[in-house]
């Protein structure tokens, strides 16, 4: 059974209510039909009910709310103002944001307990998706940083038996410090284990393996590895490792013979956003991999981004992952 089908099975066992605010995008509406048909989640769609059902009458099974006419609009305006007034937001600006940017309305619904999570980004940038979430839902109490990851399912993979990898950070932190990179690694390991049920083997990627190159960028990765090991000594983590040393056993035997991670890494931590974003897209396009995300970690409630180049099945998979994250949050 494919990984994403296992995630869907988990989601069906304890369905959560997920908001899709981008009903202006046909891919989102097509994905919503599949989600409801497969009973992966209960959905709230933000938009004009008549327009949505005119295109997709089967979506009458979803709850459709128009932020422009909703009874919640006044209440949310006042609460958003209270949340952000110390940052200079006026009451009028709060009302305008809720009407003009439905992501603000979606995040207020999660904040106030009307829904369990949000998936957006099909036709909006990562900044447009995550800024309202960070302002309204905010980070969870024990989180040092909010970062993102992609779950990659690679068909006919020569290395991992099931072809499942986690790539991070591919969507948010531009140039993480050693401390941030260590936190990303630890959070990514926890995310991988929560979603797959398998043990994480974390590779801190670089253009160098075990001192084969000298540069301050390499030093950053080495320091991050040391910090992550110190904070979480039971974690299987190693670095710095080149990609081939991280995932290819024969190369690991040559370059990092004594490593417990090299040659079998399933969590790949990229040194910066350029590398991570380029890396996941190369694998997605060249290897015809399914890329689910960017999925956020460190938020007080699951709010997940989509690539603007996402496919319908990517949206369905990301919603299923969001449900599983919400289930996991409810158990803690």
Describe the model.
With 332 residues, the chain is α/β, with parallel strands linked by helices. It has 13 helices and 11 strands. It has 2 domains: 3-138 and 300-331, 3-Layer(aba) Sandwich (Rossmann fold), CATH 3.40.50; 147-286, Rossmann fold. It has helices at residues 3-13, 26-37, 49-55, 73-84, 91-100, 102-111, 126-136, 178-196, 216-231, 243-247, 249-255, 273-286, 312-331; strands at 17-20, 42-46, 63-65, 117-120, 147-153, 164-168, 201-205, 236-241, 267-269, 290-297, 303-305. Helix 9 links the parallel strand 7 (201-205) and strand 8 (236-241). Helix 1 (3-13) crosses helix 13 (312-331), helix 4 (73-84) packs across helix 5 (91-100) and helix 5 packs across helix 6 (102-111). It is globular, with a radius of gyration of 20 Å.
In a few lines, what is going on in this structure?
With 332 residues, this protein is an alpha/beta fold.
Please tag this protein with its features.
globular; 13 helices; 2 domains; alpha/beta; 6-stranded mixed beta sheet; Rossmann fold; 332 residues; 5-stranded parallel beta sheet; 16% strand
Structural class: alpha/beta
**Largest sheet, spatial ordering of strands:** 8-7-9-6-5-10
Q: What's the gyration radius in Å?
A: 20 Å
Number of domains: 2
On the 0 to 100 scale, the average pLDDT is 91
Q: What multimeric state do the chains show? A: single chain
**Helicity, in percent?**
40-55%
Query: Approximately how much beta-strand content do the residues carry?
Result: 15-25%
CATH class type of the largest domain? Alpha Beta
- SSE order, one letter for each helix or strand: HEHEHEHHHEHEEHEHEHHEHEEH
The shape is globular
């Amino acid at each position: 059974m494919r990984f994403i089908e296992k995630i869907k099975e988990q989601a069906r066992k304890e369905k959560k209510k997920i908001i899709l605010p981008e009903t202006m995008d046909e891919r989102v509406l097509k994905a919503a039909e599949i989600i409801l048909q497969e009973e992966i989640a209960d959905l709230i769609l933000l938009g004009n009910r008549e327009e949505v059902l005119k295109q997709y009458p089967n979506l009458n099974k979803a709850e459709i709310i128009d932020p422009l006419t909703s009874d919640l609009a006044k209440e949310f305006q006042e609460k958003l103002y209270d949340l952000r007034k110390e940052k200079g937001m006026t009451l009028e600006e709060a009302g305008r944001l809720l009407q003009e940017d439905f992501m603000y309305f979606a995040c207020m619904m999660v904040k106030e307990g009307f829904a369990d999570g949000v998936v957006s980004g099909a036709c909006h940038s990562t900044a447009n998706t995550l800024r309202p979430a960070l302002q309204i839902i905010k980070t969870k109490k024990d989180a040092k940083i909010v970062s993102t990851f992609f779950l990659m399912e690679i068909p006919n993979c020569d290395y991992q038996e099931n072809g499942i990898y986690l790539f991070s950070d591919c969507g948010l932190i531009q140039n993480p410090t050693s401390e941030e990179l260590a936190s990303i690694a630890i959070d990514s390991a926890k995310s991988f284990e929560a979603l797959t049920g398998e043990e994480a083997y974390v590779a801190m990627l670089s253009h160098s393996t075990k001192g084969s190159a000298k540069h301050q960028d390499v030093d950053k990765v080495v320091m991050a590895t040391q910090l992550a090991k110190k904070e979480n000594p039971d974690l299987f983590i190693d670095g710095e490792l080149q990609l081939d040393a991280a995932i290819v056993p024969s190369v690991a035997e040559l370059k990092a013979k004594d490593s417990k991670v090299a040659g079998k890494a399933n969590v790949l931590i990229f040194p910066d956003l350029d590398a991570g974003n380029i890396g996941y897209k190369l694998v997605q396009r060249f290897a015809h991999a399914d890329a689910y995300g960017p999925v956020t970690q460190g938020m007080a409630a699951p709010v997940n981004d989509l690539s603007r180049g996402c496919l319908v099945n990517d949206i369905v998979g990301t919603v299923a992952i969001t449900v599983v994250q919400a289930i996991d949050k409810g158990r803690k």
